[in-house]
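Training component of the fellowship. As part of building independent skills, the fellow (R.M.) carried out the full modelling exercise for a liganded target. The chosen ligand was xanthosine-5'-monophosphate. The inputs are recorded below so that the supervisory panel can assess the work.
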Amino acid sequence: MLKTELAKKIEADYYRSLGINPLSGIPQGLTIQEVRFATGYSEVMPFDVDLSTEIGPVKLNLPFLSAAMNSVSGQVMLERCHEAGACGITWRDIEANDQLDRLEKVLNYKACLVPKPETLRPNSQLKEARHIKDRFDFSTIPIVSHDGVLQGILFTGSIAFKGHENEPVKNWMMPFEKLKIEKDSTSFEGVQKRLLNEPLCSLLPVVDSHRCLKGIYFMADFFHVNPSWHNSKPLVGMAVSDNAEDISRVHAGLEIGVGAIVLDSSHGNSKRVIEQAKRIIEITKHKAAVIVGNVADIDGYVRLSEIGVDAVKFGIGPGATCTTSIRTGAGYPMFSLMGEARFARKYMKKNGKPAAFIIADGGISNTGDMSVMLARAHGLMMGEYFVAFSESESFQVEGLQYGPDGKKNWVSYWGMASKKAIKEKLSVRYGLQKRAAEGIEGLVPYRGPMLKNLSEDIELVNGGISHQGAKDLKTLRELCDDTRAFSWFSSFGNNQNTPRLKGNNL
Ligand code: XMP
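Fellow's submitted model of the complex:
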């Protein structure tokens, strides 16, 4: 295998620290699910834990990135991530104009505003409202005329549809005159004050001077937003490929103010990717974080750090939709891989060498996985976790699906190397060479709106971190380096390098 001398040296030190012969030994490969924290003395309460993190020039209030996948990170997901203090990443195989348009919208986004709710016309029939309710579980449907003027709101939760399916919604809606309305220009704080203080005000439709609908604010969303987060600089990232033509979209992305450029490849430790990373670094000049991946070896980390990338993304094989390990034979169990990553970063820092930040990508699907991985990584990229929310692109486009339990309470999730995604990519990237699938399509249980779930999940992640006695992520990483912090939790019995979804198209 072609390795730099420095990588060989770090690997040898690491293997020796594990008591393994650096040349002939094979280290124990542990997946995320097989490891949990061994708990210890703590003076920290979960609500004291600060999850903020740094990735190169970018600061995040939450150390999460939504996976650059077309089932996950559409417009609404990007906006919600920004609102939550995380960072959404658009996927790469999309027309440049479309990608930039989405990014620009997020950068101009108003926190908590649902800008394009599902609407109906006054003469639409109640059965159409029922269809929207069944498909998306929405209970509030604005009724607008053909020119976009708001006529009223239909609250589907209080309607007995049976026997009335063919009636026009206008007979059942709350008319405009009875609604509390907000002006287009009101500030976030102004809207928040009304929603939280006025009686019977659980939502506020927003209209312009012609009464045209511009979106809706829902009170529930405001409970889960930390105002200091949404006020910070809007943060969103774009994935690009190793194709030289993508450099022009990097220029355009930087011009509109994207916070992260993610050079996305299934084999980040390769000549093409490293050459492209050099080109991107040259034009980015620390205005945005340059994140490059994916790699699953110390050599990849060393090479990418040395050319000056801000963060290296680790993970080959662990994704929920991923069949790379099975189909190609390449991959590395994620927990052990992240041990190597952490060791390499510390080695580079100690020896005065450039040391990129570390992002763990793939296989992190529950809050326990998140706490454990944050002991190794500065940021976590997640697909399976985010796709389960109503903000995911899959839910937005395809709605709820019937699952193996016969209930319509599931969301489709497909890999970027699944047959479904490859078909779409071929229409965007003419001449795409990679056609053999390394991913599957499957289903995940639907969880509902993201902000509500996320705020509960953060409590749990904080709980795990406070069990280590850490009040922030830097302390967590250092404490876990210096003590025996992990336990082997084999009862999960779930080999992460085989797909865990009930998928087809293997
Ligand atoms: P999770 O487990 O969070 O993983 O859903 C998300 C990550 O999985 C990777 N990915 C794939 N890997 N075939 C693969 O081998 C695929 O089709 C595929 N799609 C996504 C990717 O790194 C993503 O962030």
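The panel noted the following from the submitted structure. Residues 67, 69, 294, 315, 319-322, 324, 361-365, 381-385, 415-418, 438-439 surround xanthosine-5'-monophosphate (CB under 6 Å). The chain has two domains: 37-111+227-400+449-487, 114-222.
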